[in-house]
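Workshop exercise sheet. Pairs work together: one partner reads the sequence aloud, the other fills in the structure field after running the prediction. Swap roles for the next sheet.
Pair: D.N. / O.F.
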Amino acid sequence: HDAHMAMLLGAAKLLKAREADLPGRVVLLFQPAEEGGGGARFMLQDGALRGATAVAGMHVWPSLPAGVVSTRPGTIMAASDRFTFAVMGRGGHGALPHLAVDPVVAGAAIV
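Structure field:
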């Protein structure tokens, strides 16, 4: 997430240099607990976007070439979630592997 901070600080520097040319107020936000920690919810509850007429978010996307910015209208990457599951096996003996269920093979297939 250092890249996110570097990009927002870079944007702040560029926008500050053109501040007189901007038609309105620009607010830049660093979101705490961005992945699964609920940071956005707390920021909204605290009024971080109160009065906003437009909002743009940013996230790194490693499959894009360096220097390329991609965008589209509407929501994109607007949520994350976490889940837990168990991969269960059944032990056996090396002489009878066909009677065992190897959870490592199942886990590798999931990854």
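Discussion prompt: The longest helix spans residues 2-17. What would you look at next?
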